Hints:
The structure is a single chain. This protein is α+β, with helices and mostly antiparallel strands. It has helices at residues 47-55, 97-107, 112-126, 141-153, 171-188, 199-205, 223-228, 233-238, and strands at residues 7-18, 21-32, 36-40, 62-67, 70-71, 82-85, 159-163, 191-196, 208-213, 216-221, 245-254, 257-262, 265-268, 281-287, 293-294, 304-313, 317-324, 327-334, 344-348, 355-358. The strands form 4 sheets. It has a 6-stranded mixed beta sheet, sandwiched between helices. The protein has a 5-stranded antiparallel beta sheet with strand order 13-12-11-14-20. A hairpin with a 2-residue loop joins strand 11 (245-254) and strand 12 (257-262). The longest helix is centred in the middle third of the chain and has 18 residues, at 171-188. One of its GO terms (biological process) is carbohydrate transport. It is found in: Cell inner membrane.
Amino acid sequence: MTAANDTSVSIQDLSLNFGAVTVLETLNLDVADGEFIVLLGPSGCGKSTLLNCIAGLLDVSEGRIFIKGKNVTWEEPKDRGIGMVFQSYALYPQMTVEKNLSFGLRVAGTPKEEIAKRIARAAEILQIEPLLQRKPAALSGGQRQRVAIGRALVRDVDVFLFDEPLSNLDAKLRAELRVEIKLLHRKLQNTMIYVTHDQIEAMTLADRIAVMKGGVIQQLDAPQTIYNRPVNRFVAGFLGSPAMNFVDGYLEDADGGWRFAAGDIKIPLGTYDFAKPPAPGPVTFGIRPEHVSLNSGTGWPFSIAANVEVVEPMGSDTLVWLKLAQQNFSVRVTSERTPKNDEAVTLGFDPMRASLFDTATGTRI
């Protein structure tokens, strides 16, 4: 069995064990040709380990890896047709930018004319032409990361692997380089697999996101699908800043319709899109802070009264904290409609924007 022709990278039943510890467990992932996939998850979830397996830097315990239809499970990294960009820039300090870019090509015996052509192309794409004769010590962090990307770019490969390349940069530089990486993908149309723990990077860059936990892919889908219809409570809580609100309670059958109940709170679920046939029992109700309306007046099928506890101004908007069924609950509002501490407010929202999770298993209902 081989990978399909339109699949750039295919991972089949991949497992990795370090002694008795399972780091990756029976992973399957197909990456389409030209697709930008982001591996997202907390520290220790296995995302960088998976990337290192694809790169050939770690030997797998079980399973197979195909790149462009070729079984590369036991191939050396240099023979896999990949270019890798690491978290650390890993530039040679004694060499100029031009020498850093050309080092791998010179070692491989690439003709000088071809080396010059590839460096000129990479420098133009990354806008580092004026930096070619500088050494790394004379570059900013953002410039060094561009050079590190350029070193992968000159290899002229089909698949690029990025291992948290922006984590060492400040917030402003990260935002700038996110845009540049996205533009780079649009120009090259190469397959890119990108590891990060930063959900903003994942949401802005990815065609699809693979959310990982404990060496297992929890959900693989388009960013907005994962954001709006998370398959379990872990995914729902990991994506979003601030995180999704969770309120523990019960699912009740109310005269042929379903509702969520937590103490005095009763929320009718008439328009909720159940992922599986519902049954009465303990559930966790989830909704994102920006999907809740504050003091919106009429128009909602229900209203919930609450008192503001804390107000957090955040510039363009404001985060309002209150208690719902004795549990913390946040609402994102525009800065022009900011309530005051202890103010009585009314909450409303569309149940279609909510998520219900089985309290015992965490899976979406």
